[in-house]
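Researcher: Before we compare anything, I want clean individual predictions. No alignment, no superposition, just each chain on its own. First chain goes here; please echo the sequence and then give the structure tokens.
Model: Echoing the first chain and its structure:
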Amino acid sequence: FLEAVSLHDVRLLPDSWQAIAQQTNLDYLLMLDVDNLVYSFRTTAGLNASGSAYGGWELPTSELRGHFVGHYLSASAMTWASTHNLTIYENMNAVVAALAECQAKIGTGYLSAFPTSLFDRFEALESVWAPYYTIHKIMAGLLDQYTYAANSLAFEMLLGMTDYFGSRVERVIEKYSIERHWQSLNEETGGMNDVLYRVYQITGDAKHLKLAHLFDKPCFLGLLAVRADSISGFHANTHIPIVIGAQLRYEVVGDKLYKDLSEYFMKIVSSSHTYATGGTSAGEFWSDPSRLGDTLGTENEESCTTYNMLKVARNLFRWTKQMHYADFYERALINGVLTIQRGKEPGVMIYMLPLAPGSSKATSYHGWGTPFSSFWCCYGTAIESFSKLGDSIYFTDEVQDTPQLYVIQYLSSKVLWTAAGLSVDQRVYHMTSTDPVMTVTFNFTQLVLGKTSEAKLSVRVPYWAQSSRCLLNGLELQNLTPGTFFDVSREWKTGDKLSFTFSAMLRLEKIQDERSKYSSLYAIYYGPYLLAGMSDGNYKLGSVNVSTPSRWIKPVRDSNLFSFTQLQQGKLQYLAASSDGALSMISKPQHGSEEAPLATFRLKLLPSLKTIEKFQVKDVTSLLLDREVSLELLNRPGRFVTHFGIEDGVRLTNGKSSGFPSSSSVFKLRSALSGHPGEISFEASGIQGCFLVAQGRDITLECERFNKMAASFGVTAGRASYHPMSFEAYGDNDTYLMFPLSSYSDEKYAVYFEV
């Protein structure tokens, strides 16, 4: 098997999006108080508890309390390995020490934030909320503390828990039957088999192997073993961890059946149950195969399922080196995982990823969580995901005589390739909408100067690359094939530089639905990035050619975006459009909010005056005075501010062209009627003396007897801006602003389009 390079030997470089996500996650982990985290553990153990319990699923009344603490143990251990941040190291050791006191006080090896009575109910097949799910998280967290941070106390605690639960399972089987034990597994048990197989890998104790196998759910794994695509109706995140555990059984025992069934599982999920993001599930459950068209809603793609499917794909890649597993990993990581956080706000994450047209991450059932009162299951997997972003970039082949390093992700990072005696610095320069080329460079440094030996670097050539080039120290190498690894073997030395360029293309992929009514539903990609279009619910493109998207999808430059303000009753108000096209003045919109793009306009000069392509705020109030312009809404390309005559309303109209729809959408920029510097007024072209006026919240065109202050607007940089990978997709009736789904915050979007 390939082995992943240790997180201790990989460092994300600060210019990468992933490094920003990792830092945001670290900031959140450092916000969490040790006493608050272990509060319910202490009260359950009968110890005095300082601090107070956190909210949400960690409330003292929640039957799942303690699950997040298990995730915290894993996430903090991996964050320590990824960053060597001393504060997180101290905090996680304090949590382990506090939990050890709780376990010692109980005295049986049991450790949880809830009493053993929940397991009494579980074993009696009474209603209870997944106690083994939480126990798995705690056990996995302790194991990760041992694995990544060499905390031997954590491993002793883990063995105590293993003995306790081993005895409980044996008593159930002796008192009732093995069948009764299997029945109890219909409740979610997390990855109990996974963590127990990992324990067995360390101890070699047969009782740990036996207990792990008792959590291999036969009624589910049996379906996969006979290659039945019958996962419809199963709770996705209950069963993906069971497959991960089955994969561990293959690794530790060599039982090929478990390799085969996990390959089959990956095949059916990825080919008939996966959305364009790489995620799966609707309302937490799998639907019928190739029937995703009518599942698009607000409750798609539970984040936990993406986290766990990445584990499945990672294991399969390690075993087989097959490229399609690496491709899946890239897609799900970029479009599924990196979309979970709300920008750089620590502790603000989502549970579900809505995929219905007009959806927003902010308006699903759960919406955005909060740092101290959510703690959903997906908060736990999210903090783990962002703590180990460096664990699947580099893999080594330890079997070969010649050291070999596989690179499957393009992520600015530095890796210690100890087997080859090298440090490798990977730098990634991403494509933009105007420049489709992604450049990846590898710079080599010998760890011991003068000591060289042959080593092989194997770099993934992505399937999405329209063309590829490779230069070694400035000399071009040949025969790069998309969807394969490109191998370069040599005696590497300090100063060697290997450069790749991958040219991305726009492409469309059909939704996984074989019914004719959904045959025209497509997602749009740019390289590995899923593009979502800003939309209040529209998703129809019409008669476009799916095989030549570059003819109707055009790049957008980030320029000439402004917001227009007015001071009303001491409060700064912003000119903004509503979803129905009406214009009004609103309070200052926050960056990333749904309102920010509605209060941002692209200032377009008339075609005959396009001598200035890009201008700044100061130009609007000076250089552009007396020029004719139109105001195009940022998130609705082709929609222009239009007046409908004197003393009538002002609203957006659809120009449906790259020019201007009518003279009613053309205004002359004038010096502000207020006389204030830094302000402007908009005079209707062809109607001298008539100006846009803000009457309170309403916007009208007025020609006389109006307040000159109300016809004057300040100019600022736009409250929203274009993403570097922004495009305009021109349909029959609408034009959509497209950019990667991972960069959306509260804005509404469509992921699938009808063509």
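Researcher: Okay. Second chain, same rules.
Model: Second chain and its structure:
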Amino acid sequence: MTKKIAIINDLSGFGRCSLTAAISVIAAMGVQPCPLPTAVLSAQTGYPSYYCDDYTDKMEYFRLEWKKMGALFDGIYTGFVASERQIQHIFEFIETFYRAGTFLIVDPVMGDNGNTYAMFTEELLRQMRSLTLKADIITPNLTELCLLADTDYHMLSQINDCGRLTESIGRIGRELCKEGPEKIIVTGIRHHDEKGTEMMGNLFITEKDCSLSSFPYIGGSYSGTGDLFASCLAAGVTRGDSIPSIMNMAGEFLELALADSVKEQVPRNDGVNYEKYLPMLFRQA
């Protein structure tokens, strides 16, 4: 029987992010995506102009109707959350559908490069932290990890030595693991390897260990790359792949998509040219 993931995120017509990215990646990996939209947008919010239809008040209808159907999910995956009310709806959804055998992945979208996004508030941080502590796996970037752990991002960003940087991030992540999430993957860590090559890495952290998976830094900052990575992770966990193997596969997938996009000079708001590389994600016989 095909396994299912409930995906709670917004749907943007342009930007190759959020549900658009998640649905295509998760389906390509042989898992059924069941989207619950938090908002419907003409384009993601990085564009100079866009239309947004807020679905906060409609989220409850999805929960109630799916409950009537007797829906069961192997995983629940949450992404961008625009308000405290949306997080409350997510808590109710988890209360209804999280069961033995279901995993919860939270991508705690709050900021990047040391800065928070426009919708950020202290109350949203408090609620997001509560949500991450319920999760089995979380996928923060370094900014978001520092927000969740109340740690100084700029102090970490000054560390140039890869080993010391990894050790410092791992220590912060392990402390957070003690409070809730069993596994943390910190995404988008820029560093240099022993040859001085600029790299982009993802650090897998558990309470006892951590390991870094890195690929050459291509350049450019594109919409939706975090959504693509988290979607690979959600589908991979659902189909039983190991997290290190998922990280390597997702890294190779994104490396090719990024290189293609840089070569074609794709505007950052448009996201990356990932579609042609989806066959890389198919389960190998």
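Researcher: What stands out in the second chain?
Model: The domain at 4-280 is CATH 3.40.1190.20 (UDP-N-acetylmuramoyl-L-alanine:D-glutamate ligase). Additionally, The chain has one domain: 4-280.
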